[in-house]
Design goal:
It is a single chain. This protein has 490 residues and is of the alpha/beta class. It folds into two domains: 146 residues, Leucine Aminopeptidase, subunit E, domain 1 (3-Layer(aba) Sandwich); 317 residues, Aminopeptidase (3-Layer(aba) Sandwich). 35% of the residues lie in helices and 20% in strands. Strands 7-8-10-9-13-17-14-15 form an eight-stranded mixed beta sheet, sandwiched between helices. Strands 1-6-5-2-4-3 form a six-stranded mixed beta sheet, with helices on both faces. Strands 11-12-16 form a three-stranded mixed beta sheet. Strand 3 and strand 4 form a beta hairpin. It starts with 6 loop residues before the first strand and ends with a helix. The structure holds ligand BES, manganese (II) ion and zinc ion. Ligand BES binds next to helix 12.
């Protein structure tokens, strides 16, 4: 697993600046006012920092931008990273500053002089989140990464403020690792094993195998996995940090470790991207990890359906009719619309077993949502305005794009089947919405529910604010915030 940057917090000691090997980061506001650390650097470099700060290169910077001074005379450092940042900078500028430092550091040891910076923990979060590369499968192994020492006038307070944020980063790293991992490494069984390992951080983890799923009647989930030599699983992760009898929030994830489309085989070009089709389950795992690491005072249960969608002599055919755990029958028109067949059984099981106070499912469900919203926003579908608005607020605060989409009877009617209770696709038009309608048929009236279609945001082709290309970990921070703002007691 990709380890978080090792970060320590120390009392500011400007006498350590001159001899620091690696990089030294210093904050200077737009007016060019220097704090004691900056003044020391300026003195050591015989005024070079002051000249930099007076240059148009510096005055053109936006908050959070960085200008580097390489191999400064008078210092052992390879560079001074000068961050344009005011002491009262906002959360997103602070995170951006941290991300910029992460991008520059390579493998160097970094000393961050936070000076009088308020909310310095947010800078630490940005640095940790962006300091990610997926190298588990590179034969040269990982280059040894240096440490980050954050200097502060109140290091204990800063450490305490950073801890829950670093727990979120650690959860997001797990999501990214799982989502980046190829399908021959992250097989269904390996996925279940990695989730089981989270028992060591205090989660209760239960793995349901095919025999148990058969007994429960999860026929549609099993019908997706039956063409693969890898067994299907449902994994239930429980974190009970809240009131003893309080109904939990249920998070449900699509965990298709690889989606060939099945007998409705996908075209070859780009099929390799379908290694991320377990991204929804990856987010559920990452959130559960964060909750356990920060010992959240909430009851949350994470359920993931883990399958592989392959063509074979035993695979489900187009035209097959399958009975769901709920009891409704589905005519499988297209075996590539498999995510909803996995989720409907897991969502039904989640409600029957846990009577959740709310249910949120996450899935790389449709190409149609990618056409609609690109990589900027996940599609948000809901039957409950207060829960939906709370989520949108949390996502906005975390700068994780989320856009509400409509639902309605007209869309639902497109799922009518001649021979079964419903079809698994509604045609090309409104494809993300008809997928949501399908899921909505497995949500009880009393369950507040959100469906997040993350097909466009789970893994991206160009870097985002806090993630390099590849898996983003989208949603881990937003869901953590939703939980801490709405489901956690004092
Ligand atoms: N896993 C795909 C959706 C997807 C597409 C995820 C692009 C990430 C990026 C899903 O299982 C799928 O194949 N959906 C089909 C549904 C169609 C057959 C109704 C699609 O979107 O084409
Ligand atoms: Mn598919
Ligand atoms: Zn899929």
């Amino acid at each position: 697993m990709t380890a978080l940057t090792s970060m320590s917090f120390a009392e500011t000691d400007i006498d350590k600046i001159a001899d620091h090997v690696g990089r030294v980061a210093v904050m200077i506001d737009a007016e060019g006012k220097m704090n004691p650390g900056a003044r020391r650097i300026n003195k050591l470099t015989k005024g070079a920092l002051e000249r930099l700060v007076q240059s148009t290169q510096f005055t053109d910077l936006k908050p959070g931008d960085v200008l580097s001074m390489g191999y400064p005379t008078g210092m052992a450092a390879e560079a001074v990273d000068v961050v344009q940042l005011a002491n009262n900078a906002g959360v997103h500028d602070l995170r951006k500053a941290g991300a910029n430092l992460a991008k520059r550091r390579g493998t160097a040891d970094v000393m961050v002089l936070t000076g009088g910076l308020r909310k310095a923990a947010e800078l630490c979060f940005g640095l940790a989140m962006r300091d990610y590369t997926f190298e588990d499968n590179k034969s040269n192994g990982k280059p040894r990464k240096g440490a980050v020492t954050v200097m502060s006038s109140a290091p204990d307070d800063l450490k305490a403020a950073a801890a829950p944020l670093l727990a979120i980063a650690e959860g997001a790293f797990m999501t990214r690792d799982l989502t980046n991992e190829p399908a021959n490494v992250l097989t269904t069984t390996e996925f279940a094993n990695r989730l089981s390992e989270m028992k060591s951080i205090g989660l209760d983890v239960e793995v349901l195998d095919e025999a148990q799923l058969e007994t429960l009647g999860m026929r549609t989930l099993l019908s997706v996995g039956q063409g693969s030599d890898s067994p299907s699983y449902v994994v239930v992760m429980t974190w009970n940090g809240g009131e003893k009898d309080a109904a939990p929030l249920a998070l449900v994830g699509k965990g298709v470790v690889f989606d060939t489309g099945g007998i409705s085989l996908k075209p070859g070009a780009g099929m390799e991207d379908m290694t991320m089709d377990m991204g929804g389950a990856g987010v559920v795992a990452g959130v559960m990890r964060s909750l356990a690491l920060r010992k959240a005072k909430a009851n949350v249960v994470g359920l993931v359906g883990i399958v592989e969608n392959m063509p074979s002599g035993n695979a489900t055919r187009p035209g097959d009719v399958i009975k769901t755990m709920k009891g409704d029958t589905v005519e499988v028109i297209n075996t590539d619309a498999e995510g909803r067949l996995v989720l409907c059984d897991v969502m039904w099981y989640a409600q029957e077993r846990f009577k959740p106070a709310g249910m949120i499912d996450l899935a790389t469900l449709t190409g149609a949502i990618v056409v609609s919203l690109g990589a900027e926003n996940a599609g948000v579908f809901s039957n409950n305005d207060p829960l939906c608005n709370a989520f949108l607020k949390a996502a906005e605060a975390e700068n994780e794009g989320a856009w509400r989409m409509p639902m309605g009877k007209g869309y639902d009617d497109l799922l009518k089947s001649r021979i079964a209770d419903m079809k698994n696709i509604g045609g090309r038009m409104g494809g993300a919405v008809t997928a949501a309608q399908f899921l909505g048929r497995f949500v009880k009236d009393e369950t507040p529910w959100i469906h997040l279609d993350i097909a466009g945001v789970a893994s991206v082709k160009s870097e985002t604010a806090l993630a390099p290309t590849g898996a983003t970990g989208w949603g881990v921070a937003a869901l953590n915030r939703l939980i801490s703002d709405n489901f956690e007691g004092e």
